[in-house]
Write a structure and sequence with these properties.
By secondary structure, the chain is an alpha+beta fold. Helix content is 24%, strand content 47%. The chain has 3 helices and 7 strands, in the order ααββαβββββ. α1 packs antiparallel against α2.
Length: 123
């Protein structure tokens, strides 16, 4: 993922564009995520995208209505992204804020760590 990491990652996430997300990640992605009260792991891009991102975090009936903010930064091999989304669930509208960090490893694979606040009711 390059200089515009935030936009490159968040727009496909908001659009639930699995194919575009697969293009951004190496196949052997090392994924670790943390949401309130739970840790998530996946060893491949397909598992991270299908099982975690769109299997548990953003379920099929949920719609990401708007990307409210995106920021990105980095240092050496680490890239940091922050984003806030407006998500529509059956129960109403919610906000979610996440902070992913990527790193390229010496074996050519990539690591992705995501800290997520969980869904919070939208004001």
């Amino acid at each position: 993922m390059g200089a515009k990491l935030g936009e490159q990652f968040v727009q496909p996430l908001a659009n639930k564009d699995r194919d575009r997300l697969r293009q951004l990640f190496t196949a052997d992605l090392d994924f670790r995520g943390m949401t309130p009260n739970q840790f998530w792991e996946a060893e491949t891009a397909d598992a991270a995208i299908g099982d975690v991102l769109f299997g548990k975090w953003y379920e099929p009936h949920e719609v990401i209505r708007k990307v409210l903010s995106v920021e990105h930064d980095g240092f050496l091999a680490r890239k940091h992204v922050g984003y806030r989304l407006l998500v529509e669930k059956l129960e109403g509208m919610f906000l979610v804020t996440s902070k992913p960090t990527t790193r390229n490893r010496t074996d050519g694979s990539a690591g992705l760590r995501v800290m997520c606040c969980g869904l919070q009711p939208a004001p």
